[in-house]
Design a protein that fits this description.
Helices cover about 35% and strands about 15% of the residues. The protein has a single domain (about 1-125), classed as NAD(P)-binding Rossmann-like Domain (Rossmann fold, 3-Layer(aba) Sandwich). By secondary structure, the protein is an alpha/beta fold. The protein is globular. It has six helices and four strands. The termini are far apart. The chain has a four-stranded mixed sheet. It has helices at about 1-5, 25, 60-75, 90-95, 95-100, 115-125; strands at about 15, 35-40, 50-55, 75-80.
Amino acid sequence: MRRAEELANPGAVLATGTSGIMISELSGQLQDPGRLVGTHWFYPANVMPLVEVARSEITDDDAVEQTIALLRLIGNKPVVVKGDQKVAVAAILNIGPRRLSEPSSSGATRSGPNGSVDLSMSSASPAQP
């Protein structure tokens, strides 16, 4: 990531597709850690419009907004997740549609914050058994 930062134009957003390393860990290597976002594409990417945009606590809002704008421009449906929650939507999809319709012990419903679970379920096909 340091080498990518050296080669990129100042202010350019740096994005990683990793889902196994936390964004906060990767951004610690950078001089400007606020410009790093994670993008987790669901496959097949040419069919599945859902893309998670992962951010750390220090990711700049502008970097997230630029990433969302680009993804929407190319026809994707971005969902912002906290970067230290690895592959959040995939974990939700593994719960299954039946369980998502039930309230959680905290009282939250399937719509979740900002309706992201509803978006995830409408944008992605359910996991196959």
